[in-house]
Inverse folding.
């Protein structure tokens, strides 16, 4: 209906223009003729009337032709409208009212969707806050642990270093002790062997005493026999008897000396045996002291083992520290990803704004046709609204999505790097 | 001594995550929810080693704040980084003209952020 009224108004306007143009041409003709010729100017008028009439009529004919076409179309529309019966007109009006009412109902619909987005954003923000708080708590606790770990790394390093230094020092000491013990043992063994040889030499004299005693006893017996034989010889054998007596005394003295020597040799052997026992005990004790050497060796091995374990402990603690540093790095990355929530929030807020815009425009669509004197034009359309969004995006991702769906081109330049130092 | 960073952002999640991230990097962090709060802190004598600010904020946005901060006595030379979703070249150029030191587009990983700040603040 509005379209038809508009067309009729346009036809009326053009007819008025046509009449005004014809009048203007006639006035101009009159003025031209009256300037160049005194009345009556029939001959001249007759001369130029033909071309002027053609000049006047040609545009009129064109306009008329166009008016004729438009008028026929308008009449056709009016006839079509006029052919509608009451039920059909009523149905058209009812449909329009229904569409209008439904469009008006978009208001709560869009507002609910708007609020849904808002609530989702608020909820996601709350949850992200909880996540950040938990990460923060975790970082606080692990921060203390890291201090412990750092101290442990330091003390483990010092322990390992000290142990290595001590082990190196003790290695020399232990080697010296072992050498000294070995030398002492050799010396003891050598002394023992010498005493043993000496004792054997002394004890080997005992059979000689028996020989001496036997010789002395036989000498005494010979002297006694000689004394008896000297007595048988009488005075001639008196001198021989004196010699035999002296020989027998000498034999007795020899026997006594032999007995004394035997007693002394026996005493010496006994003392040598005692000394040997003592030396044996001393040697055994000294050899037992080689257990000290084993102990020293064991101690050295234990130190090496301890040193190795200290190194292992240091490595373990260092690895724990490295793992902790890795955790910190990953948490920092995770915190960076949390910024996506803010990015998403801003995109969703843009969508919320667009929803409000859509609501207002739909309400305008529903209400504007009823407004008296409305010319059928809208201040904004969905097309212009969409185009206005294209140049108002903050993020490259928004522009990319828009262009992928609706096409077109953007004046915005989002091509520069994410991190830019001036 | 730890360097101090003033974080200016209206988003609670951003403020919290940046505070934790920068603390991990060994920085002390002070926060403001918009440009006006940041200006008030600076006028009150607070002297950060660096300002890290969002652009789109209520009350006073980041670009306006940068211009006003640079006009404050003693605030002409310390670095101001923007951390924003705005990636449009014209905005960046405006930020640069007003006195921003750098432009970071969200999201930036925590490690990259710390690396950039340590690059700007030697010895941090």
């Amino acid at each position: 209906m509005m379209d038809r009224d508009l067309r009729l108004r346009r036809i009326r306007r053009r007819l008025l223009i046509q009449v005004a143009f014809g009048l203007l041409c006639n006035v101009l003709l009159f003025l031209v003729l009256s300037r160049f010729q005194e009345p009556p100017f029939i001959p001249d008028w007759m001369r130029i009337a033909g071309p002027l009439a053609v000049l006047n009529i040609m545009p009129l004919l064109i306009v008329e032709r166009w008016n004729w076409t438009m008028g026929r179309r308008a009449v056709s529309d009016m006839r079509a409208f006029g052919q509608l019966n009451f039920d059909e007109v009523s149905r058209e009006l009812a449909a329009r009212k229904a569409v209008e009412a439904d469009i008006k109902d978009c208001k709560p619909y869009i507002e609910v969707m708007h609020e849904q987005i808002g609530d989702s954003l608020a909820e996601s923000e709350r949850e992200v806050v909880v996540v950040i708080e938990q990460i923060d708590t975790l970082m606080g606790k692990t921060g203390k642990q890291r201090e412990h770990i750092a101290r442990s790394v330091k003390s483990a390093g010092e322990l390992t270093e000290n142990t290595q230094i001590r082990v190196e020092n003790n290695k020399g000491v232990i080697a010296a002790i072992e050498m000294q013990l070995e030398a002492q043992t050799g010396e003891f063994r050598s002394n023992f062997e010498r005493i043993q040889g000496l004792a054997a030499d002394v004890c080997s004299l005992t059979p000689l005493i028996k020989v001496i005693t036997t010789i002395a006893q036989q000498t005494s017996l010979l002297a006694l026999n000689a004394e008896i034989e000297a007595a048988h010889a009488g005075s001639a054998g008196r001198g021989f008897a004196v010699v035999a007596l002296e020989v027998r005394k000498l034999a007795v003295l020899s026997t006594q000396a032999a007995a004394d020597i035997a007693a002394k040799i026996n005493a010496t052997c006994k003392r040598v045996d005692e000394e040997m026992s003592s030396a044996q005990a001393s040697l055994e004790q000294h050899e037992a002291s080689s257990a000290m050497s084993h102990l020293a060796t064991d101690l050295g091995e234990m130190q090496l083992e301890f040193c190795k374990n200290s190194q292992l402990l240091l490595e373990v603690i260092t690895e724990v520290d490295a793992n902790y540093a890795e955790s910190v790095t990953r948490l920092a990355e995770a915190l960076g990803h949390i910024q996506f929530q803010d990015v998403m929030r801003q995109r969703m807020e843009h969508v919320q704004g667009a929803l409000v815009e859509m609501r207002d425009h739909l309400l305008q669509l529903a209400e504007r046709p009823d407004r008296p004197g409305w010319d059928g034009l809208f201040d904004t359309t969905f097309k212009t609204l969409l185009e206005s969004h294209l140049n108002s995006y903050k993020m490259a991702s928004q522009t990319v999505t828009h262009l992928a769906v609706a096409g077109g081109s953007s004046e915005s330049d989002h091509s520069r790097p994410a991190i830019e130092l001036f | 001594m730890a360097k101090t960073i003033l974080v200016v952002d209206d988003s609670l999640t951003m403020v919290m995550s940046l505070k934790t991230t920068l603390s991990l990097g060994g920085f002390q962090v002070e926060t403001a929810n918009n440009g006006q709060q940041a200006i008030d802190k600076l006028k009150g004598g607070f002297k950060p080693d660096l300002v890290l600010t969002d652009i789109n904020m209520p009350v006073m946005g980041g670009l306006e704040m940068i211009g006003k901060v640079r006009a404050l006595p003693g605030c002409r030379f310390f670095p101001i980084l923007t951390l924003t979703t705005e990636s449009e070249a014209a905005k960046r150029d405006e930020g640069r003209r007003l006195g921003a030191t750098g432009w970071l587009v969200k999201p930036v990983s925590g490690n990259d952020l710390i690396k950039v700040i340590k690059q700007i603040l030697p010895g941090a």
The first helix of chain B runs from residue 12 to 24. Chain B touches chain A at residues 11-14, 16-18, 20-21, 23-25, 56, 84-90, 92, 96, 100-114, 116, 119-120 (CB under 8 Å). Residues 10 and 33 of chain B are 5 Å apart (CA to CA). The mean pLDDT of chain B is 91.
